[in-house]
GNAT family N-acetyltransferase (Hymenobacter mellowenesis), 153 residues
Amino acid sequence: MSSVPTVRPPRTPAEWAAYYHLRYAVLRQPWQQPPGSERVPADDEPGTIHALLLANEATETPVALAVGMLQPTGDRQGQVRFMAVAPEAAGTGLGRVVVAYLEAQARAAGITEIVLHSREAAVRFYEKLGYAVVEPSHLLFGEIQHFLMRKQL
Ligand SMILES: CC(C)(COP(=O)(O)OP(=O)(O)OC[C@H]1O[C@@H](n2cnc3c(N)ncnc32)[C@H](O)[C@@H]1OP(=O)(O)O)[C@@H](O)C(=O)NCCC(=O)NCCS
């Protein structure tokens, strides 16, 4: 029986670097966005929840396989942002595990509703996890259509 991989916040500077590196590689680099564009001020706010799933827990050079974050947005609501799974690990259930971690942490923080802006290609993924499309939202980098989605916890 395979065990559920560990998801937790980054702890060391090397883990934080691995965390942001995967975000950049999956969500920014393919659209020629500059290094640093993968970070937002909310990353450093105290209520923000960061989720990191490492390839190997016992290593000095950590490699991230999956990441995600949840930003409290007020009125018992949170927003899932920057979900990214390494291409070689996609489709193996890691994204589901990261979202489950963020939802559990959100519940523990008293959050009762999660919203997110999903890329069109990821809408089906979120639907499988119980999220429903509310409406089309923004167009990122002039080409990636997003959809506002919502789930009650
Ligand atoms: C979208 C993403 C986060 C999904 O993570 P993942 O680890 O590949 O997904 P999982 O393996 O946990 O899949 C969970 C379920 O969703 C399905 N699924 C995952 N990605 C899907 C997709 N793009 N389209 C349709 N179904 C998808 C899986 O088949 C699985 O279904 P099952 O339970 O019936 O087997 C990941 O593929 C990714 O990082 N993609 C590129 C970046 C991106 O689009 N991020 C989201 C920005 S909003």
Summary: Residues 13-27 form the longest helix (15 residues).
